[in-house]
């Protein structure tokens, strides 16, 4: 498969629009010379050891859950280990992709997998994800005649590249023709400027901000009301088994013991501070 085809598959699996705004996701390193993607290495973190493994395997693509490049880079130098990894990826012609919080947010993704370790329960999303609609505003106005409508529409079309504006309907009545159109944030100002040049639209113009539709099941963090409450000790054993780990770090709250009951559990991959801060639960998993 070509790189762009692999990226399309990854996008279908978990759209990058689900990622948090602060995150750095997607294709982070793109080779200058395209080559078929035959070998893909999946890793939690791109470290020096992982890069050596990728080089030995002659990998074409590294999918690193955590983004190896996060903050802006002003130079590529050998003294910084992350910059060294980027240089080696470029020299080897390897692509590097990071999904991070898009995989956390997706329905059936990392957070759902984590919370599933405690057993069945009523699971809800803590921080709801919303669809990335391209149009952010709705403009409603009135024109007096079909001729005026055509003139306004032609001016709007002339300022549009074909994607920023969309007419959502027109309704004639005794007072004139009521028109509705949606536009992107970038098209809002030029569209309003055009409408204000015409007397009828100028007097009747109203601007509405469109809310993005929620995406059920997608978002950051999960809260599970367990079908069968367990003790803290049992919850720990369940998570050890689920994660395949011999040890977990535990911080007991004031007055809590290993025999305390766990009826609700809140989960967020990563530190989870912004997602879990106002959540009430018996157990927090991060």
TrEMBL record:
GO MF, one example: metal ion binding
Principal subcellular localization: cytoplasm
Subcellular locations according to the entry: Cytoplasm; Nucleus
InterPro entries, A to Z: DUF34/NIF3 (IPR002678), DUF34/NIF3_animal (IPR017222), DUF34/NIF3_sf (IPR036069)
Binding residues annotated for a divalent metal cation, in chain numbering: 66, 104
Keywords in alphabetical order: Cytoplasm, Metal-binding, Nucleus
Pfam families: DUF34_NIF3
GO cellular component: mitochondrion; nucleus
Subunit structure: Homodimer. Interacts with COPS2. Interacts with THOC7.
Family: Belongs to the GTP cyclohydrolase I type 2/NIF3 family.
PANTHER family: NGG1 INTERACTING FACTOR 3, NIF3-LIKE PROTEIN 1
Task of the protein: May function as a transcriptional corepressor through its interaction with COPS2, negatively regulating the expression of genes involved in neuronal differentiation.
Protein name, entry field: NIF3-like protein 1
Phylogenetic placement of the source organism: Eukaryota, Metazoa, Chordata, Craniata, Vertebrata
